Amino acid sequence: MKFVLAKIHSEPFIGLLHGEKIIDLNKAEQEIFEITSFPRSLLECVTLGEKFVQDVIQIVDKIKNADGHEGYVYSFSDVKIQAPIPRPTKNIFCVGKNYREHAIEMGSEEDIPKHLMMFSKAPTSVIGHEDEIDPHLHITSELDYEGELAVVIGKKGKQIKEEEAMNYVFGYTILNDITARNLQSQHKQFLIGKSLDTSCPMGPYLVHKSAIK
Fold it and tell me: Which domains does the chain have, with CATH numbers?
C-alpha cells in the first residue's frame, strides 16, 4: 500500500495509490459504507495502526467489484501531492556518516565513526514532493543533497528489544537530507546546516511495511 497526503481544489485528503490513480479514502468510505471515519492527516492515520490498514483493505476490495467510482478516484494531474507527514511531532532523527565512502569524502578514514552517530532535522524543514527548495544564498553557497530512506514509526515504545523493533514500524518514505555544508563545518555539528527551511523534501508516498519484501 502506498498512501499520499494530497490536495484537490485546495482541500487536503488522504489518498491511496491504486494503479495509475489515487483514491480519496474518506470519499470512498462515504460512498461505499456511508460513513467517514478516517482522520484528515496521514500522521493520525498512522497512529491508528492495523485498524487503519484493515479499513483501507475493505475499501479496496469493494472498489474491485464496483462499477464507476469517478467521484473519489483522481489522476495525478488532478491533485497536488504534499509531504506524507508535513509536520512531524518530533525532530526527524537521522544516522550520520553511515556510508563509508561519504565519511571519507567529508574527511578521512578517521572520520568513520566507531559508534552510532545521530543527528536531527527540525520538523519545520519538511516540504512536499517537487516543492521549491530555497537555496538560502544569503548564508550558503554549498547546499548539498542526500537521498535517504526514512522509517516511519507507528506507535510509542521504550526500551524495545531488537527482535520486536519491526512491530513499531508503520512504513517507509524517502526524503532529501539537504545540507548547507559550510554551516555544518562552521558549527561542528549538524542541526543548523541540516534544518534550514525547505531542507527536507519528503515523499511522495508513505509505503506500508507490508509492501516491502
Answer: 2-81 (2.30.30.230), 92-211 (3.90.850.10)
